[in-house]
Amino acid sequence: MTTDRSPGYLKALLRELCALPTETEWVEFKENNEDPQQIGEYISAISNSAALCGKTNGYVVWGVNNETHKIVGTTFSPHTARKGNEELESWLLRLLTPRIHFYFYNIEIDDKPVVILEITRAARNPVQFQGIEYIRVGSTKKKLKAYPEKERALWRVFDEIPFERMIALERV
Fold it and tell me: 10-28: per-residue pLDDT in tens?
């Protein structure tokens, strides 16, 4: 899925994410991991974690070193990636419940390609990938069912925030 974000906005966002001292529950850095299964699980985990952390969106960024947060570039190309005979984005969307919005953005910084995956937070119930709900515990992806206290907290978030009071658009 794509939406219009200016290159200036995306570069500023990338610099903001890279300035974080460590990965968070709503931000994951990758260099070249192109495994569709892992990407789907990360979408679920980061969407759920963004809701739990009070963020509008979560992010997976390819082309940034996990330890140093230095921009190193990536070979990952989500718009040409496929799972079997199906386009990656279509395959991911089909296996997510509910079908949340996510957007892949390709940008170049210092002549290095970077991909930013922007993931909308979970809104009314936890996001599942292939029927399993995931969450981030620190910077690690785990099954939500293994962390009942986080699951309870996530459901409380859904109960506490009426739809009308949620942020419509961030950083406008």
Answer: 999 999 999 999 999 999 9
